[in-house]
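EI: anyone free to look at a 346-residue chain?
SC: sure, send it
EI:
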Amino acid sequence: MINSCLISRPNDSAPWCDETFDLGQGKSKAMCEEKGRGRVYLDFVLEIDKLARAHGKQTHIASDMLNQYPELYDEVPDDIVIMDWNYDDDAPFDTTCARIAEAGLPFCVVPGTSAWYSLGGRTDTCLANQRLASRAGRDHGAIGYVNTDWSDKGHWHYYAISEVGWAAGAAWAWNGDGDEDGFTRALDLHVYGDAAGHMGRLAYTLGNIYKVVGTTVRGASALFHLILDADETAVPDGVAAEDLKRTRASIDEVMSSLPHVRLTRDDGDLVVKEFANTGRLMRHACDRGLALLNGTMARGEVRRRLASVMDTILTDYRWLWRARNREGGLSDSARVLEERLAGYRI
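SC: here you go
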């Protein structure tokens, strides 16, 4: 059995040293040209490990850089914990975990909720990712299962949206051979506490709206980009007006059961409001994309309608944020929504 750790970063470890995109640029360029990026990375990690040990800490490092240079695993001290992270639905956990285990290193598998970059979640990506992580972790001797949830470029998915992924992580970490039969019923019973039996299916299906668009964006949903990006680049390649009309209709269908849920958890009213504003934001993404594709964004009535809806979204977004979270981060996450609103009012 693998431990299920529903956290994003261990509190007693050194930094993960992940996503070193700029290594080999700027000050490190000459050193990387001389020694190689992998060598420079590992030397730096070993210096950090010395500092961690001096303070009685155990170092945990991300796997992404070492997976590019797997021969370096043999030089990693055998008590450094490797955090083998990957968030794709075709993540090669079996290959990477096997290599880490071969080097005799302790490691955790690190999947994710796939809720970030999504608005309403990406259920199928999440479940596939969690399943691959759990089975590879079991087969190759992982010491832990760390389920992550991120918020890059705007934390527009609410706590209740991420709960689908957290529940999946808990289920698959416990039983790597589990399947999705009964998953929505389990969400109703153990997560949302819906006596009416609607919320599990609603959350699961809303999280698959990203597939209805017909054009997928790796690591994100097309609807997320329809909110995030400026007018000229907002519509992903391959997305047509009919796709967005179909998607909007699907959102309406999924959200139609929200008034009928009966949540017994203490924050049930808050959960309903989080889903309501999520549906509103997803519909708005479709409407914005349609206005851009149809060339109607310049029309006053279209802009006024979009502005009115975004004003409501922003108002609810701010108080929903404060209902669960500290103020820090709100201004950054709300900034793009404010930019969209200001653009409609020009």
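EI: Confidence is low (pLDDT under 50) at residues 1-14.
SC: 👍
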